[in-house]
Amino acid sequence: MEGTVPDDFELMWGDLRPLGRSASSGGYFRQPFTSPERELVAWFLEQAEARGLRVESDDFGNIVAWWDTGSGPAVLTGSHLDSVLDGGAYDGPLGVVSALAAVDLMRSRGVVPSRPVGVSVFVEEEGSRFGLACLGSRLATGATSWETARELQDRDGVRLGDVVVGGSSSLLADVGTFVELHVEQGRDLVDRGAAIGVASEIWPHGRYRFDFTGSANHAGTTRMEDRQDPMLTYAMTALAANKQARLAGQRATFGRVAVEPNGTNAVPSRVTAWMDARCATDAGLSDLVEAVTRQATDRADRDGTTVEVTAESVSASVAFDSSLAAALAADHEGGDWPVIATQAGHDAGILSAAGIPTAMLFVRNPSGVSHSPAEHAEIADCLVGVSALADTLERLTR
Protein backbone atom coordinates (compact mmCIF):
# COMPACT_ATOMS: atom_id res chain seq x y z
CA MET A 1 0.00 0.00 0.00
CA GLU A 2 1.10 3.55 -0.68
CA GLY A 3 2.01 5.95 2.13
CA THR A 4 4.91 7.82 3.60
CA VAL A 5 6.43 7.21 7.00
CA PRO A 6 6.05 10.20 9.33
CA ASP A 7 9.11 11.76 10.92
CA ASP A 8 8.03 10.21 14.23
CA PHE A 9 10.28 7.17 13.79
CA GLU A 10 13.48 9.19 13.66
CA LEU A 11 12.34 11.45 16.49
CA MET A 12 11.54 8.45 18.69
CA TRP A 13 14.81 6.74 17.79
CA GLY A 14 16.67 9.88 18.76
CA ASP A 15 14.91 9.86 22.14
CA LEU A 16 16.06 6.32 22.89
CA ARG A 17 19.62 6.47 21.61
CA PRO A 18 21.31 7.84 24.80
CA LEU A 19 19.37 5.77 27.36
CA GLY A 20 21.53 3.11 29.01
CA ARG A 21 24.44 3.62 26.61
CA SER A 22 28.00 3.10 27.83
CA ALA A 23 30.28 6.08 27.24
CA SER A 24 33.27 3.76 26.91
CA SER A 25 32.03 0.95 24.67
CA GLY A 26 29.01 2.51 22.99
CA GLY A 27 27.00 -0.56 23.96
CA TYR A 28 23.78 -0.66 25.95
CA PHE A 29 23.10 -1.83 29.50
CA ARG A 30 19.31 -1.95 29.75
CA GLN A 31 18.76 -4.80 32.19
CA PRO A 32 15.19 -5.37 33.44
CA PHE A 33 13.99 -3.26 36.38
CA THR A 34 17.13 -1.12 36.40
CA SER A 35 17.04 2.65 35.89
CA PRO A 36 17.81 2.72 32.13
CA GLU A 37 15.18 0.10 31.34
CA ARG A 38 12.62 1.83 33.57
CA GLU A 39 13.33 5.10 31.73
CA LEU A 40 12.56 3.30 28.47
CA VAL A 41 9.29 2.00 29.90
CA ALA A 42 8.36 5.52 31.07
CA TRP A 43 9.13 6.79 27.58
CA PHE A 44 6.86 4.11 26.07
CA LEU A 45 4.01 5.07 28.38
CA GLU A 46 4.40 8.71 27.36
CA GLN A 47 4.33 7.75 23.68
CA ALA A 48 1.20 5.65 24.21
CA GLU A 49 -0.55 8.49 26.02
CA ALA A 50 0.40 10.98 23.28
CA ARG A 51 -1.32 8.72 20.76
CA GLY A 52 -4.42 8.15 22.88
CA LEU A 53 -3.67 4.45 23.28
CA ARG A 54 -5.13 2.61 26.25
CA VAL A 55 -2.37 1.08 28.38
CA GLU A 56 -2.75 -2.29 30.08
CA SER A 57 -0.13 -4.07 32.16
CA ASP A 58 0.11 -7.35 34.04
CA ASP A 59 1.64 -8.41 37.36
CA PHE A 60 4.98 -9.27 35.76
CA GLY A 61 5.84 -5.98 34.07
CA ASN A 62 4.57 -6.71 30.56
CA ILE A 63 2.70 -3.83 28.88
CA VAL A 64 0.33 -3.44 25.92
CA ALA A 65 -0.82 -0.09 24.49
CA TRP A 66 -4.15 -0.69 22.74
CA TRP A 67 -5.53 1.09 19.70
CA ASP A 68 -9.16 0.23 20.42
CA THR A 69 -10.73 0.02 16.98
CA GLY A 70 -13.16 -2.59 15.72
CA SER A 71 -13.88 -5.83 17.52
CA GLY A 72 -12.91 -9.47 17.57
CA PRO A 73 -9.50 -11.10 18.08
CA ALA A 74 -6.82 -8.44 18.40
CA VAL A 75 -3.65 -8.12 16.37
CA LEU A 76 -0.63 -7.60 18.61
CA THR A 77 2.76 -6.29 17.57
CA GLY A 78 5.79 -4.93 19.46
CA SER A 79 8.89 -6.48 21.03
CA HIS A 80 11.07 -5.71 24.09
CA LEU A 81 13.18 -2.83 25.47
CA ASP A 82 15.79 -4.67 27.57
CA SER A 83 19.25 -5.52 26.24
CA VAL A 84 22.04 -8.00 26.73
CA LEU A 85 25.09 -6.75 28.60
CA ASP A 86 26.89 -4.24 26.36
CA GLY A 87 24.35 -4.91 23.62
CA GLY A 88 23.26 -3.16 20.47
CA ALA A 89 20.65 -0.46 20.02
CA TYR A 90 18.29 -2.32 17.70
CA ASP A 91 17.62 -5.72 19.27
CA GLY A 92 14.14 -5.21 20.75
CA PRO A 93 13.64 -1.43 20.69
CA LEU A 94 13.45 -1.42 16.89
CA GLY A 95 10.29 -3.52 17.09
CA VAL A 96 8.68 -1.24 19.67
CA VAL A 97 9.53 2.04 17.91
CA SER A 98 8.50 0.59 14.54
CA ALA A 99 5.17 -0.55 15.98
CA LEU A 100 4.35 2.94 17.26
CA ALA A 101 5.44 4.45 13.96
CA ALA A 102 3.32 1.89 12.07
CA VAL A 103 0.26 3.04 14.04
CA ASP A 104 1.10 6.62 13.05
CA LEU A 105 1.49 5.60 9.42
CA MET A 106 -1.80 3.69 9.36
CA ARG A 107 -3.59 6.70 10.82
CA SER A 108 -1.98 9.01 8.25
CA ARG A 109 -3.34 6.70 5.56
CA GLY A 110 -6.81 6.97 7.04
CA VAL A 111 -6.87 3.31 8.02
CA VAL A 112 -9.40 2.29 10.66
CA PRO A 113 -8.65 -1.34 11.59
CA SER A 114 -11.61 -3.66 11.95
CA ARG A 115 -9.86 -5.36 14.88
CA PRO A 116 -8.05 -3.90 17.90
CA VAL A 117 -4.31 -3.36 17.47
CA GLY A 118 -1.90 -3.58 20.39
CA VAL A 119 1.74 -2.53 20.80
CA SER A 120 3.48 -4.74 23.34
CA VAL A 121 6.58 -4.48 25.49
CA PHE A 122 7.59 -7.81 27.00
CA VAL A 123 9.95 -7.65 29.96
CA GLU A 124 13.29 -9.55 30.36
CA GLU A 125 13.37 -10.99 26.84
CA GLU A 126 17.14 -11.37 26.84
CA GLY A 127 17.45 -13.14 30.18
CA SER A 128 20.39 -10.85 30.90
CA ARG A 129 19.46 -10.25 34.54
CA PHE A 130 17.50 -13.26 35.79
CA GLY A 131 18.89 -15.86 33.43
CA LEU A 132 15.71 -17.06 31.70
CA ALA A 133 15.22 -15.77 28.17
CA CYS A 134 11.76 -14.50 27.14
CA LEU A 135 10.77 -14.47 30.80
CA GLY A 136 7.97 -11.91 30.42
CA SER A 137 6.28 -13.70 27.54
CA ARG A 138 6.74 -17.07 29.27
CA LEU A 139 4.91 -15.72 32.31
CA ALA A 140 2.21 -14.04 30.20
CA THR A 141 1.47 -17.29 28.34
CA GLY A 142 1.80 -19.53 31.38
CA ALA A 143 4.79 -21.36 29.89
CA THR A 144 6.63 -20.59 33.14
CA SER A 145 4.86 -20.40 36.49
CA TRP A 146 5.29 -17.51 38.89
CA GLU A 147 6.09 -19.99 41.65
CA THR A 148 9.19 -21.01 39.66
CA ALA A 149 10.09 -17.61 38.25
CA ARG A 150 9.96 -15.65 41.51
CA GLU A 151 12.93 -17.66 42.86
CA LEU A 152 15.21 -16.68 39.97
CA GLN A 153 18.17 -14.58 41.12
CA ASP A 154 20.40 -12.06 39.41
CA ARG A 155 24.17 -11.95 39.83
CA ASP A 156 23.84 -9.98 43.05
CA GLY A 157 21.48 -12.54 44.59
CA VAL A 158 18.36 -10.37 44.15
CA ARG A 159 15.25 -12.51 43.60
CA LEU A 160 12.79 -11.69 40.85
CA GLY A 161 10.10 -11.89 43.52
CA ASP A 162 11.80 -9.01 45.33
CA VAL A 163 11.40 -6.62 42.39
CA VAL A 164 8.11 -7.75 40.82
CA VAL A 165 4.79 -8.25 42.57
CA GLY A 166 3.92 -11.28 40.45
CA GLY A 167 0.60 -13.03 40.14
CA SER A 168 -1.22 -13.46 36.83
CA SER A 169 -1.68 -12.03 33.35
CA SER A 170 -4.63 -11.61 31.00
CA LEU A 171 -2.84 -9.44 28.43
CA LEU A 172 -3.01 -12.11 25.72
CA ALA A 173 -6.56 -13.30 26.38
CA ASP A 174 -8.05 -11.58 23.31
CA VAL A 175 -5.04 -11.77 20.99
CA GLY A 176 -5.70 -13.54 17.70
CA THR A 177 -2.39 -12.85 15.93
CA PHE A 178 1.07 -11.61 16.94
CA VAL A 179 3.58 -9.97 14.59
CA GLU A 180 7.04 -9.06 15.86
CA LEU A 181 9.39 -6.86 13.86
CA HIS A 182 13.06 -7.37 14.70
CA VAL A 183 16.46 -6.46 13.37
CA GLU A 184 17.97 -9.49 11.66
CA GLN A 185 20.75 -11.02 13.73
CA GLY A 186 22.69 -12.44 10.83
CA ARG A 187 23.53 -11.83 7.16
CA ASP A 188 20.80 -13.72 5.29
CA LEU A 189 19.03 -10.58 4.05
CA VAL A 190 22.35 -8.93 3.19
CA ASP A 191 23.29 -11.90 1.03
CA ARG A 192 19.86 -11.84 -0.63
CA GLY A 193 19.94 -8.09 -1.21
CA ALA A 194 16.58 -7.70 0.55
CA ALA A 195 15.58 -5.10 3.14
CA ILE A 196 12.73 -7.15 4.67
CA GLY A 197 12.26 -10.84 5.40
CA VAL A 198 9.64 -13.04 7.04
CA ALA A 199 10.51 -15.76 9.58
CA SER A 200 9.85 -19.42 8.84
CA GLU A 201 11.16 -20.92 12.07
CA ILE A 202 13.31 -20.49 15.18
CA TRP A 203 16.03 -23.00 15.88
CA PRO A 204 15.82 -24.86 19.22
CA HIS A 205 18.26 -23.47 21.75
CA GLY A 206 19.24 -23.69 25.38
CA ARG A 207 21.46 -22.37 28.16
CA TYR A 208 23.41 -24.91 30.17
CA ARG A 209 25.42 -24.31 33.35
CA PHE A 210 28.61 -26.36 33.77
CA ASP A 211 29.91 -26.53 37.35
CA PHE A 212 33.54 -27.71 37.41
CA THR A 213 34.94 -28.47 40.89
CA GLY A 214 38.55 -29.10 41.92
CA SER A 215 40.93 -28.18 44.74
CA ALA A 216 42.29 -24.73 45.48
CA ASN A 217 46.03 -24.60 45.89
CA HIS A 218 49.13 -22.42 45.62
CA ALA A 219 50.02 -21.45 42.04
CA GLY A 220 53.73 -21.56 42.77
CA THR A 221 54.35 -24.43 45.18
CA THR A 222 51.92 -26.98 43.74
CA ARG A 223 53.49 -29.21 41.12
CA MET A 224 51.56 -29.46 37.87
CA GLU A 225 51.05 -33.20 38.30
CA ASP A 226 49.63 -32.69 41.81
CA ARG A 227 46.80 -30.34 40.79
CA GLN A 228 43.05 -30.88 40.52
CA ASP A 229 42.48 -27.81 38.38
CA PRO A 230 38.90 -27.24 37.18
CA MET A 231 40.10 -24.51 34.81
CA LEU A 232 41.78 -27.15 32.69
CA THR A 233 38.57 -29.16 32.53
CA TYR A 234 36.61 -26.07 31.56
CA ALA A 235 39.17 -25.06 28.90
CA MET A 236 39.00 -28.47 27.23
CA THR A 237 35.19 -28.40 27.40
CA ALA A 238 35.05 -25.02 25.66
CA LEU A 239 37.28 -26.37 22.89
CA ALA A 240 35.16 -29.52 22.67
CA ALA A 241 31.98 -27.48 22.33
CA ASN A 242 33.51 -25.47 19.50
CA LYS A 243 34.67 -28.63 17.69
CA GLN A 244 31.40 -30.54 18.11
CA ALA A 245 29.34 -27.58 16.90
CA ARG A 246 31.56 -27.04 13.87
CA LEU A 247 31.43 -30.72 12.93
CA ALA A 248 27.64 -30.75 13.15
CA GLY A 249 27.13 -27.37 11.47
CA GLN A 250 25.43 -26.04 14.62
CA ARG A 251 26.20 -23.41 17.29
CA ALA A 252 27.79 -23.66 20.76
CA THR A 253 29.25 -20.79 22.78
CA PHE A 254 30.71 -20.41 26.26
CA GLY A 255 30.17 -16.70 26.84
CA ARG A 256 30.07 -16.39 30.63
CA VAL A 257 32.50 -17.72 33.24
CA ALA A 258 32.81 -17.34 37.03
CA VAL A 259 35.92 -18.49 38.89
CA GLU A 260 36.50 -19.14 42.62
CA PRO A 261 38.48 -17.86 44.41
CA ASN A 262 39.46 -15.86 41.31
CA GLY A 263 43.00 -15.13 42.44
CA THR A 264 45.96 -14.74 40.11
CA ASN A 265 48.27 -16.79 42.31
CA ALA A 266 45.86 -19.60 43.15
CA VAL A 267 44.72 -22.78 41.44
CA PRO A 268 40.92 -22.33 41.35
CA SER A 269 38.60 -24.52 43.37
CA ARG A 270 35.58 -23.99 41.14
CA VAL A 271 34.75 -22.79 37.64
CA THR A 272 31.17 -22.16 36.60
CA ALA A 273 30.56 -21.61 32.90
CA TRP A 274 27.43 -21.17 30.83
CA MET A 275 27.07 -22.69 27.36
CA ASP A 276 24.58 -21.40 24.81
CA ALA A 277 23.75 -24.10 22.24
CA ARG A 278 21.53 -23.84 19.14
CA CYS A 279 20.75 -26.43 16.49
CA ALA A 280 18.55 -26.92 13.46
CA THR A 281 16.53 -29.68 15.18
CA ASP A 282 15.57 -30.68 18.70
CA ALA A 283 17.38 -33.99 18.28
CA GLY A 284 20.47 -32.19 17.07
CA LEU A 285 20.47 -29.97 20.15
CA SER A 286 20.18 -32.98 22.44
CA ASP A 287 23.00 -34.78 20.62
CA LEU A 288 25.29 -31.75 20.75
CA VAL A 289 24.82 -31.16 24.49
CA GLU A 290 25.28 -34.88 25.17
CA ALA A 291 28.53 -34.97 23.18
CA VAL A 292 29.97 -31.94 24.97
CA THR A 293 28.90 -33.28 28.37
CA ARG A 294 30.51 -36.65 27.65
CA GLN A 295 33.83 -35.07 26.71
CA ALA A 296 33.71 -32.79 29.77
CA THR A 297 33.11 -35.78 32.03
CA ASP A 298 35.92 -37.79 30.46
CA ARG A 299 38.33 -34.88 30.90
CA ALA A 300 37.23 -34.34 34.52
CA ASP A 301 38.10 -37.96 35.28
CA ARG A 302 41.62 -37.38 33.97
CA ASP A 303 42.03 -34.04 35.78
CA GLY A 304 40.80 -35.32 39.15
CA THR A 305 37.91 -32.84 39.01
CA THR A 306 34.15 -33.16 38.76
CA VAL A 307 31.58 -31.62 36.43
CA GLU A 308 27.83 -31.20 36.78
CA VAL A 309 25.63 -29.93 33.94
CA THR A 310 22.31 -28.15 34.54
CA ALA A 311 19.90 -27.08 31.81
CA GLU A 312 18.79 -23.61 32.94
CA SER A 313 16.67 -22.73 29.91
CA VAL A 314 15.70 -24.84 26.90
CA SER A 315 13.40 -23.74 24.10
CA ALA A 316 12.16 -26.25 21.54
CA SER A 317 12.08 -25.55 17.83
CA VAL A 318 9.33 -23.22 16.62
CA ALA A 319 7.78 -23.47 13.17
CA PHE A 320 5.78 -20.35 12.45
CA ASP A 321 2.44 -20.65 10.68
CA SER A 322 3.62 -21.32 7.12
CA SER A 323 0.41 -20.10 5.45
CA LEU A 324 0.51 -16.87 7.44
CA ALA A 325 4.19 -16.33 6.60
CA ALA A 326 3.54 -16.97 2.91
CA ALA A 327 0.57 -14.62 2.87
CA LEU A 328 2.51 -11.80 4.53
CA ALA A 329 5.55 -12.31 2.28
CA ALA A 330 3.64 -12.31 -1.01
CA ASP A 331 2.70 -9.57 -3.48
CA HIS A 332 4.82 -6.58 -2.54
CA GLU A 333 6.32 -3.89 -4.70
CA GLY A 334 9.63 -5.27 -5.89
CA GLY A 335 8.56 -8.87 -5.34
CA ASP A 336 7.82 -11.26 -2.52
CA TRP A 337 9.75 -10.87 0.71
CA PRO A 338 12.10 -13.82 1.39
CA VAL A 339 11.06 -16.33 4.05
CA ILE A 340 14.05 -17.21 6.24
CA ALA A 341 14.90 -19.14 9.40
CA THR A 342 16.41 -17.53 12.49
CA GLN A 343 18.79 -18.97 15.05
CA ALA A 344 17.88 -16.36 17.67
CA GLY A 345 15.15 -16.72 20.28
CA HIS A 346 12.25 -14.25 20.42
CA ASP A 347 9.03 -13.58 22.32
CA ALA A 348 7.29 -14.50 19.06
CA GLY A 349 8.47 -18.06 19.55
CA ILE A 350 6.89 -18.24 23.00
CA LEU A 351 3.54 -16.90 21.77
CA SER A 352 3.61 -19.26 18.81
CA ALA A 353 4.26 -22.24 21.09
CA ALA A 354 1.28 -21.09 23.18
CA GLY A 355 -0.99 -21.50 20.16
CA ILE A 356 -1.22 -17.89 18.98
CA PRO A 357 -0.77 -17.55 15.19
CA THR A 358 2.50 -15.66 14.94
CA ALA A 359 4.76 -14.10 12.33
CA MET A 360 8.02 -12.16 12.36
CA LEU A 361 9.39 -9.47 10.08
CA PHE A 362 13.14 -8.91 9.89
CA VAL A 363 14.92 -5.69 8.93
CA ARG A 364 18.28 -6.01 7.21
CA ASN A 365 21.41 -5.68 9.34
CA PRO A 366 24.29 -4.67 7.02
CA SER A 367 27.00 -5.93 9.38
CA GLY A 368 25.25 -9.13 10.41
CA VAL A 369 26.52 -8.38 13.94
CA SER A 370 24.17 -8.53 16.95
CA HIS A 371 24.40 -8.62 20.75
CA SER A 372 27.21 -6.13 20.30
CA PRO A 373 27.66 -2.36 20.07
CA ALA A 374 28.35 -2.94 16.35
CA GLU A 375 24.74 -4.04 15.74
CA HIS A 376 23.22 -1.76 13.10
CA ALA A 377 20.40 -1.07 10.69
CA GLU A 378 20.28 1.76 8.17
CA ILE A 379 17.55 4.35 8.78
CA ALA A 380 16.34 3.83 5.20
CA ASP A 381 15.80 0.11 5.91
CA CYS A 382 14.17 0.90 9.25
CA LEU A 383 11.66 3.13 7.47
CA VAL A 384 10.98 0.35 4.97
CA GLY A 385 10.38 -1.86 7.99
CA VAL A 386 7.80 0.58 9.39
CA SER A 387 5.95 0.57 6.07
CA ALA A 388 6.17 -3.22 5.91
CA LEU A 389 4.76 -3.55 9.41
CA ALA A 390 1.96 -1.08 8.66
CA ASP A 391 1.10 -3.01 5.48
CA THR A 392 1.11 -6.25 7.46
CA LEU A 393 -1.15 -4.89 10.20
CA GLU A 394 -3.54 -3.57 7.56
CA ARG A 395 -3.73 -6.99 5.92
CA LEU A 396 -4.42 -8.65 9.24
CA THR A 397 -7.07 -6.19 10.39
CA ARG A 398 -9.14 -5.87 7.24
TrEMBL record:
InterPro entries: Amidase_Cbmase (IPR010158), Bact_exopeptidase_dim_dom (IPR036264), Peptidase_M20 (IPR002933). Gene3D superfamilies: 3.30.70.360, Zn peptidases. One of its GO terms (molecular function) is hydrolase activity, acting on carbon-nitrogen (but not peptide) bonds, in linear amidines. Zn(2+) 1 binds at H80, D91, H182. Its cofactor is Zn(2+). Binds 2 Zn(2+) ions per subunit. Keywords: Hydrolase, Metal-binding, Zinc. Allantoate binds at R207, N265, R278. Zn(2+) 2 binds at D91, E126, H371. NCBIfam families: hydantase (TIGR01879), PRK09290.1-4 (NF006770). Belongs to the peptidase M20 family. This is Allantoate amidohydrolase. It comes from Nocardioides agri.
